[in-house]
Design a protein that fits this description.
This protein is an alpha/beta fold and 190 residues long. It is built from 6 helices and 6 strands.
Length: 190
């Protein structure tokens, strides 16, 4: 089983800011969410994390030393890191939504993110056939992993909404992947 988890809340999440590669810690709600996630995961064999503190802190309640994999880091928003989501103009959003090679100034395109995340998923495929592998990551890599699970040929990230501290589960069997659940949040007490 390959389980993909979004990190708990940070102050930047609460403020509606793009975090990208900014290394923010969890806030008090985020730390509670991390404990609730740990309780919902069941037995875990392997933990993989983005290198960012918010993902590592979310995995901490499991008590398993994580494997850090840079490919699970959030999309690089470049100059937009730390900016309110609302500061990006409608025309820019429209361009971004219609072109997966669109790159924020100094950042990374969705096409580039998909290549690295799909590669990370492929590298975990055989391990996830026999063990429960849990990846702690961010919104954009989760959308990309779901795209991988569904074998999508077109960009679907704009058609997915990923909740804070969500869990998604991908069954891997006979070298094939099946999306079992997406955006689970029932474990959260809010």
């Amino acid at each position: 089983m390959l389980t993909i988890v979004r990190h708990g809340r940070t102050a930047a999440n609460a403020g509606g800011l793009l975090q990208g590669h900014i290394d923010n810690p969890l806030d008090s709600l985020g730390r509670r969410q991390a404990s609730e996630i740990a309780g919902a995961l069941g037995e875990v064999d392997v933990v993989v994390c983005s290198p960012l503190t918010r993902a590592i802190e979310t995995a901490k309640p499991l008590g398993i030393t994580p494997v850090i994999d840079e490919r699970w880091i959030e999309l690089d928003y470049g100059d937009w890191d730390g900016q309110p989501v609302s500061s990006i103009g409608k025309d820019t959003w429209a361009q971004w939504r219609s072109d997966d090679t669109f790159t924020p100034p100094g950042g990374e395109s969705l096409a580039s993110l998909n290549r690295r995340v799909h590669s990370a998923c492929e590298d975990l495929r055989s391990l996830a056939e026999s063990q429960h592998v849990v990846v702690f990551t961010h919104v954009s890599p989760i959308k990309s992993a779901i795209s991988w699970a569904l074998s999508c040929e077109r960009e679907i990230s704009w058609n997915l909404s990923v909740s804070q501290a969500q869990i998604s589960r991908i069954l891997v069997r006979n070298s094939q992947q099946t999306l079992l659940s997406f955006n689970e949040v029932a474990h959260l007490t809010k």
